Amino acid sequence: MVSIAQTALNTLFWEAAVMLLVIGFVNMGVGKNEPRDFGIVLLSGALMETIAMAFVIVEGDIFGATVAAAFVLLLWMLGIGLIMGKNLMAMNHALWFTGLFFALITVELIRMGTVMLSFAIGLLPIITILLSIVHYLNKPSIGKVAGVISIIDGFAFFVLAFAGAAGIVLP
Q1: Which residue among 25, 59, 109, 165 is least enclosed by CB atoms within 10 Å?
Q2: Could you report the per-residue pLDDT of 70-105, keeping only the tens digit for each?
Q3: Which CATH superfamily is domain 2-166 in?
């Protein structure tokens, strides 16, 4: 069962990488970005992350499952909000409060001495809070900053996913 949970957690890293890269490039304005298409991508990521999170829960990894749940919430909220085009203020609140939660998780990860994971999770509060500010204040230029940070974070999660798949333990 441990290998299933580790595989699920690694899958969460991979999906986080892909989702953060997509979010980053969309916020940077790369390509023609239709909100509903973007929402479908986020919902597909949310579904896959939910399945992987279920395996982490079954293993009893409370910390891993809670962190995954926060990211899963964001993907569901953003995906549904973009597809429906309604209640975007609720989406902004979810971004803001999840950003605060990720900040607390980052402090705990630093305390645990997990350098790479602290870095990857540590960028999430910056991204989510910046994205909420973009929408609260209607400042698209801040979205580009969040996009750059999201792309950097996507590559950090990509490194975590690759290392896990290759059996490399990162500090």
Answers
A1: 165
A2: 999 989 988 988 888 876 788 888 889 999 999 999
A3: AmiS/UreI transporter (1.25.40.600)
